[in-house]
Amino acid sequence: MAMRLPVRPFTLTTRIRAVRFTSTASNLSDAVKKTITRDAGLPNPDPGADSPSAALVNDHAAYMVATYARPPPVFVQGEGSWLWDIENRKYLDFTAGIAVTSLGHGDAEFTRLLTQQAKTLMHASNLYYNPWTGALSKLLVEKTRSSGGMHDAARVFVCNSGSEANEAAVKFARKTGKVVDPAGGKTDVVSFSGAFHGRTMGALSATHNPKYQEPFAPMVPGFVEGRFNDVGGIRDLVTERTCGVIVEPIQGEGGVVAAEEGFLVALARRCREVRAVLIYDEIQCGMGRTGSLWAHGGLPRDAHPDVVTSAKALGNGFPVGAVVVNDFVGDKINVGDHGTTFGGNPLACRLAHYLVERLSDPVLQQGVLEKSELFRDGFARLKKRFPQLVTEVRGRGLILGLQLTEDPGAIVKAARERGLLVITAGTNTLRFVPSLVVTGEEIAQGLQILEDAIAATR
Ligand SMILES: Cc1ncc(COP(=O)(O)O)c(C=O)c1O
């Protein structure tokens, strides 16, 4: 039987909504009957070929460009750290939509503001002022400075996604290079092995991974790859030709690998020497996930960047991105240099404004650090019980990686079929990026499911 929802029981309306949603699928009534007899051995066995989930997917999949390989469940509802699929299976969500829903699913105030602002004004275009684009920009600058992050944060460009934020950051670096060296010799953009900066052509050109780049070659010219955490290589890598350097303080997709403080300090010093723009991509690791507003918040001032990019948790699921710049960069960007139709719309900015307030709350951030310890204690137990499998625990706060010696695919499936959603990263890394409001009890429950899942795959 499916695990039932204890927090807010599926009301009749919800169940009807779920079934109605599936009613486009063929043979639904037969399929619904079959779910009642699902495997009793596992709480959430993946929906089978004759399930309502499969019927729905079969009806839709042919119309969707096949860019993702998805597991069988179809999610219809979320609350806090929990998701429900159309067959009323309940899952503990340690993925938060890949580090997005930091306040959890269905936060009441977020939802209220969304509705209120949608009724008031959603979009009028960047051709005009509105109250929220500027309010978000001001708040981001103030909170960045007061949180110990980028001390000279000055202005913000608001966009719609992480890739777009990095795209803008790279363009700002190129423009800065043009002003610093009008002869046009300052155009190189440096990024690092293991990095992930997005899928648009500029962001992709900074993501030196053949898996992502090869199908779309040639890349944008002028992108140079360096070795992550290689202090010795910085001098030859970052030169007078460099206009910008982009780096994740903690690589997410790359396997939850933190940049060493000495590396970032050396990188920042070298950028200042050659007047290159230093960009910290905090799209995954920022916004409170490490227990401070920005992952770079604990670094000495001389390791602070000229630009920070944000997205993901900035919108808790609503698409929004932001590029925070200092005056070295901001002074060089003029009217007409860059733009966006949707970016900075009043709805996205009203929501992001609320999220920046919530995610910069010291109480929430202290909770992140405490919850991180609960995960780490659990991971230590797993490492002890499965020494051949678990080799290392990485990351900070609630962006954590468990390095395994094998492909985690079977464990991810076994966890899902026991009611826990986890994702992977890098090479054989299990990645944990739950909502920041996940409770201690939920962490304990999830870790127990993970342990059972690992044991079942041995
Ligand atoms: C560090 C980092 N940068 C950029 C991106 C791209 O963001 P988006 O998918 O919103 O374009 C991601 C997405 O995973 C990311 O983790």
TrEMBL record:
The EC class name is transferase
Cofactors: pyridoxal 5'-phosphate
Q: What is its EC number?
A: 2.6.1.11
Where are the membrane-spanning stretches?
none
Which molecular-function annotations from GO does this UniProt entry contain? identical protein binding; N2-acetyl-L-ornithine:2-oxoglutarate 5-aminotransferase activity; pyridoxal phosphate binding
- Give a GO biological-process term: L-arginine biosynthetic process
Q: Which CDD domains match?
A: OAT_like (cd00610)
Q: Does the keyword Metal-binding apply?
A: no
Q: Which GO terms describe its cellular component?
A: mitochondrial matrix
Write the record's keywords in alphabetical order, separated by commas. Answer: Amino-acid biosynthesis, Aminotransferase, Pyridoxal phosphate, Transferase
Q: What is its main location?
A: mitochondrion
Q: Which compartment or compartments is the protein found in?
A: Mitochondrion
Specify the superkingdom. Eukaryota
Q: Which InterPro entries match?
A: AcOrn/SuccOrn_fam, Aminotrans_3, Aminotrans_3_PPA_site, Class-III_PLP-dep_AT, PyrdxlP-dep_Trfase, PyrdxlP-dep_Trfase_major, PyrdxlP-dep_Trfase_small
Specify the pathway.
Amino-acid biosynthesis; L-arginine biosynthesis; N(2)-acetyl-L-ornithine from L-glutamate: step 4/4
Q: Which NCBIfam families match?
A: argD, PRK01278.1
Instruction: Give the similarity note.
Output: Belongs to the class-III pyridoxal-phosphate-dependent aminotransferase family.
Protein's name in the database: acetylornithine transaminase
Q: What species is this protein from?
A: Metarhizium album (strain ARSEF 1941)
Upper classification of the source organism reads: Eukaryota, Fungi, Dikarya, Ascomycota, Pezizomycotina
